[in-house]
Each structure stands twice: as C-alpha cells, then as structure tokens.
Amino acid sequence: MSTLTATPQRVRRLTAALYRFGSARLRRLGVGETHPDWQKRAEICEYCPMRVIRCGVSYCGKPFLQLIDREESIDGCGCPCRDKAKSPSEHCPIDRRGQPARHSASDCSCKWCRLSSAG
Ligand code: SF4
Ligand SMILES: [Zn+2]
C-alpha cells in the first residue's frame, strides 16, 4: 500500500519535481534559458509510446502526482513534455531502443541527445 511517508528517494523526487515546475513557470515568464532544439525534442515525445495525454497536455508517462514512486526509464518522469523539452538541463530517460539512457559528463545516449539519428 502506498503511503505518504517521506523516504529520502521520495523527498528527492518531490524536490526535483518542484524545481522543474518552478523552472517551467519562470521560462513562461521569459526567465531562464530554453533549449534551442526544444521543438524537435517535443516532437519526439509526440511519437513516444511512453507519452500520456491528460486534459490535452502530453506528459512523459503519467503526470508526476499520479505516480510519485516511479522508475523513470519505465514509467517516464511525469513532466509535461513541452516544458521538459524546453529545459536545457533535462534529458529523455530512455535511448532509441527503449533502454535506460546513459548519461555522463561528456555524453548522453538519450533519444533527445541523439536527435540527428532519431527516426
Ligand atoms: S521525454 Fe523521452 S520517454 Fe519521455 S515522452 Fe519524451 S521521448 Fe518519451
Ligand atoms: Zn540526453
């Protein structure tokens, strides 16, 4: 049974979600950077099997508050796709084969970072 206990993992997820929410709000006000390829990134989301539509908005998996305890490479991160795509610090959680993306300081295997070869 899921309870609202504040495990360290849950606190980390909630903090990250709040940060993403705040950043998206600021970007809508014209504050903060927007990724130059955000439209291509958002388009990739539109064809992704992980995408969920709620009230006309595309999300990466179920919206965050509907599934707090999640594995991002399986469930998605729960963010609105367009907001996530606009954030320069965000990555897609999976690679083109649907496997967990590998991130390092110099490289990333996610679907977005492999835009040139994405089909
Ligand atoms: S961020 Fe990646 S996993 Fe999430 S909906 Fe977009 S393409 Fe799919
Ligand atoms: Zn990436």
Structure description:
This protein is mainly alpha-helical and 119 residues long. It contains four helices and two strands, in the order H-H-E-E-H-H. The chain has helices at 8-28, 38-46, 72-75, 81-86, and strands spanning 51-54, 57-60. It has a two-stranded antiparallel sheet. Iron/sulfur cluster (SF4) binds next to helix 2 and helix 4.
Annotation keywords:
single chain; 119 residues; mainly alpha; 4 helices; globular; binds iron/sulfur cluster
Strand proportion? 5-15%
Q: Which strands sit side by side, in order, in the main sheet?
A: 1-2
Question: Oligomeric status of the shown chains?
Answer: single chain
Low-confidence stretches: none
Q: Mind summarizing the main beta sheet? A: 2 strands, antiparallel
SS content category:
mainly alpha
Run of helices and strands: HHEEHH
Q: State the distance separating the first and last CA atoms.
A: 40 Å
The structural domain count equals: 1
The Rg value, from CA coordinates, equals 14 Å
Bound molecules: iron/sulfur cluster, zinc ion
How many strand elements? 2
Number of helices: 4
Helix percent band: 25-40%
In terms of topology, how is this protein built?
Elements: H1 8-28, H2 38-46, E1 51-54, E2 57-60, H3 72-75, H4 81-86
Antiparallel strand pairs: 1-2
